Amino acid sequence: MKITNYIAGIEQTTTDYIPNINPATGEVYGEIPRSKREDVELAVRASKEAFKTWSKLSQSERSKYLHAIADDIEKNLEDYARAECIDNGKPISLARSVDIPRSIQNFRFFADEILKFGTESFNTLDAGENTVYYSPLGVVACISPWNLPLYLFSWKVAPALASGNTVVAKPSEVTPMTAYMLGKTCERIGLPPGVLNIVHGLGHEVGEAISTHQDILAISFTGSTMTGQKIAEASASTMKRLHLEMGGKNATIVFSDCDYEKTLETTLRAAFANQGQICLCGSRILVEKSIYEKFKTDLVAKVNGLKQGDPLDESSQQGAVVSKAHFDKILKAIETAKSEGGKILTGGKALKEPGFFIMPTLIEGLNQNCLTNQEEIFGPVATIEPFESEEEVINMANANRYGLAGSLWTQDIEKAKRVALQIDSGILWINTWLLRDLRTPFGGMKDSGRGREGGQYILKFFSNTKNICINR
Ligand code: NAD
Predict the structure, then answer these.
(1) What average pLDDT does this structure show over 51-56?
(2) Ligand 1 atom nearest to 442, measured from its CA
(3) Are strands 166-170 and 139-143 parallel, antiparallel or unpaired?
(4) pLDDT score, position 472
(5) What percentage of the chain reaches a pLDDT higher than 70?
(6) Residues 441-444: contacts with CB under 8 Å, at least 24 apart
(7) Which pLDDT tens digit goes with each residue over 369-409?
(8) Quick one: which of 183, 230, 361, 408 has the fewest CB in 10 Å?
(9) Distance in Å, CA 222 to ligand 1 centroid
């Protein structure tokens, strides 16, 4: 199937195409526009035109459009879930229960949240009164990755639109399908032309054209730290406002006084959900020495119990990784782990071919300074290592350039808070993982991020702030 760009409310074809590959079979099953600078230019022009009216709509009118988008995705949930599964290689059960419902929730959440976004007032004793006003920026861009395609695309597009901006959005060229379908949804619900423009293509072409475009005022990006750096460099001369969500190499910390069964089950999920391709995955598992051997043995048994196979099979818990390039990168990282002295406890190889299946892999015997524990693998590969004290585990968790998230497991809540406060990461879960309240700030420290998404944080990112001070 040949997909198209969605610009100025209509499907736009291009001259060049790149293949779309099904990671479960390794076969080409579609074509993706290889857009050029001219296509980005067309999208920016359409966005500028649409901004004149979209920015003037009331918050409740914009809210209605976002709810209509959510309704339409909901109506077509099964088609969206199937498309996400085929495009990405993730199990259909995950696409149906997480990716698409969360995409719907993103539109609904910001449809409601924008109604709570208003002015703020500060009384300055008897001297005056300050009022802070928020207004849309103009044309903004959203650039998203392949691991949670529609989930992360909509997590940016929804607040950008809700706050009155018009958008040029670029999904990953590895998983373009559900973004294409979102364009169809926008057509069906009658979103005014040019309000959302979706331009497909390669990062160094379309992404670069977005980063350097004079009339794009802000970029919200999710992807690798290396690409985040490139966007920061390329956009510097146009002084864009940047929000960057980047890599993660998160620790799961297991104390001996944890709720054992719940910890074991969630540690497994945190390491291997979506084939370990979630920026929040706990790929460094740190276990208190007194329970290390038992926990390791039980975790290996759980990993071995994961059912891996055809992503379209309802019972599959592990699917394929997203592409051949990523498959090769992960297998290479496993070889690096072995050469660093890592012992493969389970997995460690490809499952079957054709298709890009890698067995969930657990490795022990590596310290935190080796490449395996330093670099993102972003696949079904986790390491496990014992620790003896609070101080030691804090140092181990922090011995990394990333600082996105982490989870820690203990029934001693005071200890949990004490440790959590000393870990350099933007998000810490205690006795849970991936429990999300969309109002809370989401983002990383160190090389994991700049800025925060979520609730009013991202609405402010997408807005101009003006303070008006009146003398009494
Ligand atoms: P990526 O950086 O390769 O690509 C992300 C997006 O950026 C894609 O749309 C791509 O086309 C585009 N891009 C690539 N080069 C570009 C350039 N020079 N200029 C502008 N845009 C460009 O990342 P990926 O491989 O798609 O995704 C995996 C990465 O994303 C991992 O590092 C993962 O940790 C990260 N991620 C982070 C979060 C988070 O919230 N922090 C969430 C999900 C994924």
Answers:
(1) 98
(2) 40
(3) parallel
(4) 82
(5) 100
(6) 442/245, 443/245, 443/404, 444/245, 444/246, 444/248, 444/402, 444/403, 444/404, 444/405
(7) 999 999 999 999 999 999 999 999 999 999 999 999 999 99
(8) 230
(9) 5
Name the pTM for this structure. 0.98
SS3 223: coil
Domain-by-domain residue ranges, the chain?
Answer: 5-246+448-470, 251-438
**Contacts (Cβ under 8 Å, ≥6 apart) of 201:** 14, 18, 32, 33, 34, 35, 36, 39, 170, 173
Positions marked active-site: 245, 279
CA angle 245, 444, 413 (to 5 degrees): 145
* CATH 3.40.309.10 fits domain 251-438: yes
Q: Are 172 and 202 in contact (CB under 8 A)?
A: no
- For 5-246+448-470, CATH number? 3.40.605.10
In short, whether 436's Cβ falls inside 6 Å of ligand 1 is no
Q: Is 173 in the pocket of ligand 1 (CB under 6 A)?
A: yes
Largest pairwise CA distance in the chain: 75
Closest ligand 1 atom, residue 170 Cα: 9
- Cα–Cα distance for residue pair 389/470, rounded to 1 Å: 56
Whether residue 147 has its Cβ less than 6 Å from ligand 1: yes
* 3 state DSSP class of 260: helix
Smallest CA-to-CA distance from 444 within 420, 428, 463 is with: 428
Residue 144 Cα to ligand 1 midpoint, Å, equals 6
Residue nearest to atom 26 of ligand 1 (CA): 145
Q: Which residues contact 392 (CB under 8 A, 6 or more apart)?
A: none
Is the C-beta atom of 397 inside 6 A of ligand 1? no
pLDDT digits (tens, 9 = 90+) for 328-374: 999 999 999 999 999 999 999 999 778 999 999 999 999 999 999 99
pLDDT digits (tens, 9 = 90+) for 422-440: 999 999 999 999 999 999 9
